[in-house]
Write a structure and sequence with these properties.
heterodimer, A: alpha+beta, Folate-binding fold, four-stranded antiparallel β-sheet, two-stranded antiparallel ribbon, 2 helices, B: alpha+beta, Gyrase A, domain 2, six-stranded antiparallel β-sheet, five-stranded antiparallel β-sheet, globular, binds zinc ion
């Protein structure tokens, strides 16, 4: 079974987790002045990369916290997880760390 | 006039006992008072004074004293367990100790129920539906966490080398108990 390293609980089986979409998508600060196109992009448009993807997960059957995760969508390998609220990491640094 | 008296009924009523001689016993625990407490570490330390047990700061830990237990389920979430019938007294004591600090305290005494799994084959029986490594070197006495048994959320707490306390929503009891009983035939 795939083990996911929860930043709070450590390595735990994937069945305890739920996927929650791409991370670091900020809600427009003033929706009333946002155009329909911008609002649609916020709601529905995602980067969908082949390779490293920064995404949200929730350890729902564990500590129940949301956290962020850097995962390679080709190999399904998880390179890094970090608590929600921390800034978006530099992907180049993460690749360098992973190859050390 | 209709009789509106509410009768308390055990979630384990009518279930087949699970006992394998010399291997494992699964037994319901007595009714208990239970709270879900949410708050930051400052609120948690105030709550500890009202509850009478230190709410553990470290994750995945159970702390017990005088028949009361506090389990850290997440960075800002604790499960509090005390003897039956203490809801009002504990709620008053905890709210007083918190003195209006931001927190949430929810009575879940009747939502949850619990049983123990004990005996030399306790780990093996739980492994039928639990995905965690339950070896005592990885899951030591005093460790507790929310996890799953098959498809049901449970809180698993190791109270002794060969004993686990399993806390779960009462509506999940027939499902979990049925699977444990089935698995017990293979021990
Ligand atoms: Zn966790």
């Amino acid at each position: 079974m795939l083990l996911i390293p929860c930043p709070h609980c450590g390595n735990r089986p994937e069945l305890e987790f739920r996927y929650a979409g791409e991370a670091h998508i900020a809600r427009p600060a003033d929706p009333s002045t946002t155009s329909d196109q911008e609002w649609a992009e916020y709601l529905y448009f995602r980067s969908n990369p082949k390779g490293l993807h920064i995404e949200r997960w929730r350890h729902v059957s564990g500590c129940a916290r949301f956290f962020n995760c850097v995962r390679d969508t080709v190999s399904d390998k998880i390179l890094k997880t970090y608590p929600a609220g921390q800034p978006k990491p530099d992907l180049a640094d993460i690749v360098k760390e992973a190859h050390q | 006039m209709s009789d509106s008296k509410i009768t308390r009924r055990s979630a384990f009523e009518g279930l087949h006992p699970i006992q394998v001689e010399g291997a494992v016993t699964v037994a319901p625990t007595p009714y208990a008072t239970r709270f879900s407490f949410r708050g930051d570490s400052k609120a948690a330390s105030a709550c500890s004074k009202g509850f009478g047990v230190m709410l553990p700061n470290a994750l995945l830990k159970a702390e017990s004293d005088n028949g009361r237990t506090a389990i850290s389920l997440g960075p800002d979430e604790w499960l509090l367990i005390a003897p039956d019938g203490e809801v009002e007294a504990l709620e008053a004591a905890i709210e007083k100790a918190l003195d209006k600090q931001h927190h949430s305290l929810v009575d879940i005494s009747h939502r949850n129920t619990a049983f123990t799994v004990s005996g030399p084959k306790a780990e093996t029986l739980l492994a039928s539906g639990c995905l965690l490594d339950l070896h005592v070197s990885v899951f030591p006495v005093g460790m507790a966490t929310r996890t799953i048994y098959s498809k049901a959320d449970i809180v698993l707490w190791r109270t002794a080398a060969d004993t686990f306390h399993v806390e779960l929503w009462r509506s999940f009891v027939p499902f979990v108990w049925g699977l444990l009983e089935e698995a017990s035939h293979e021990l």
